[in-house]
Amino acid sequence: MKKTAKIFIAPAILLAALAAIFSCGIKRPPLPPEKLFPLAVQDPQVMIRDGCADLSWKYPGLAPPEKYRILRTEQSGSGPAPNSAEQTFEVPGTESLFHDCSLKAGFLYGFQVTGVSQARLEGEPSKTVWAHISQLPPAPENLRAVPGDRFVDLAWTAAAGMAYNLYRSKDREKFSSHPLNLGPMLESKYSDGNLENGKEYFYCLRATVVEKDYPPLESGCAPAAATPIDLIAPAAPRGLVAALADKAVQLKWFKSPEPDLLGYLVYRRRPGEQSWKKITAEPIPETEYVDQQAFKLKGRFEYAVSALDNAPSKNGSRRSQVEAVSVP
């Protein structure tokens, strides 16, 4: 049975504070009510991860209180009169998060937040949020991330009775509070698509236990990282023509449309030969090439061109159609 914690302002403290403000004869501008009694904290939420509670809240006023007081209620057992204990913590008014790693499996915990002013006056307490630590799920094992072309495939070893949440980030230390998956996954694989090639992505997989009326429990993080890679080669260059000009073989072709194009490689061989000789040491950005060596060798030659992209794997296209020319 849930026990709602209540915090009361001691009448003696309230009267003493008001007397100190209004009893002296010196006239001062009146203090805003919020400076005396902080506004009620709103939207308290608790997230349970790796045996710890992250309690967060929002303060609706213009200026935060001097500090926040957190009342934690710990209950064990069941029935109309469960065993209960209370403990109080404080954080500065500049904080809106309380991290508590002293939770124990099998207990029910309630958290309530109250603002406290510089005059040591308490505002109205927030509602109590509850978390049931039914069990502490173990971190997933054997998480693997395999990159592909604009995607990463992830797989792991599933434990009996466990569901999973997967988080992604471009910073290995910071992850969103919302998982990639729409709901806890019972399967042990996930394909993350629509990614950018060449950029590293970091993943955090957590086992989760979902219990009705309480926030889900999540395990520690199983990390992995992967960088999607471009595996798609450009199309073969089109429109290759070869002609004699100024004691050289001049080659021209159409520009390839791929935005990630690095350049072109030019090949030559004698008719009937099975293998091609690459006559450009490095990819050239131009869509033409002059082969002066052919006039020294003389005879009949065949030419072809391939395109290369700028991916780390340097994907190469198929060779273009073959063009033949005779050098006298």
Structure description:
- With 328 residues, this protein is mainly beta.
- The chain starts with 10 loop residues before the first helix and ends with a strand.
- Helices cover 6% and strands 41% of the residues.
- The strands form 5 sheets. Strands 1, 2, 5, 10, 12, 13 and 14 form a 7-stranded mixed sheet that branches. It has a 4-stranded antiparallel sheet with strand order 4-3-6-7, with no helix packed on it. Strands 18-17-20-21 form a 4-stranded antiparallel sheet.
- The longest helix has 12 residues, at 11-22.
- It has helices spanning 11-22, 33-36, 293-297, and strands spanning 42-49, 52-58, 67-76, 83-92, 97-100, 107-116, 129-133, 141-147, 152-157, 163-169, 189-192, 201-209, 217-218, 222-226, 241-244, 249-252, 261-269, 277-278, 288-291, 299-309, 323-327.
- The protein folds into 3 domains: 11-133, Immunoglobulins (Immunoglobulin-like, Sandwich), CATH 2.60.40.10; 141-226, Immunoglobulin-like (Sandwich), CATH 2.60.40; 241-327, Immunoglobulin-like.
- It has 3 helices and 21 strands.
- The radius of gyration is 35 Å and the shape is elongated.
Shape: elongated
Q: What is the annotated CATH architecture of the largest domain?
A: Sandwich
How much of the sequence lies in strands comes to 35-45%
Could you tell me the number of beta strands? 21
Rg over CA atoms, rounded to whole Å, is: 35 Å
> What is the makeup of the main sheet?
7 strands, mixed
Poorly predicted ranges: 1-25
Structural class: mainly beta
Cα separation of the termini: 101 Å
Mean pLDDT: 89
- Corresponding CATH superfamily of the largest domain: Immunoglobulins
**CATH topology call of the largest domain:** Immunoglobulin-like
Count of discrete alpha- or pi-helical segments spanning 4 or more residues:
3
What is the total domain count?
3
The CATH class assignment of the largest domain is Mainly Beta
Topology as H/E string? HHEEEEEEEEEEEEEEEEEEEHEE
The share of residues in helices is under 10%
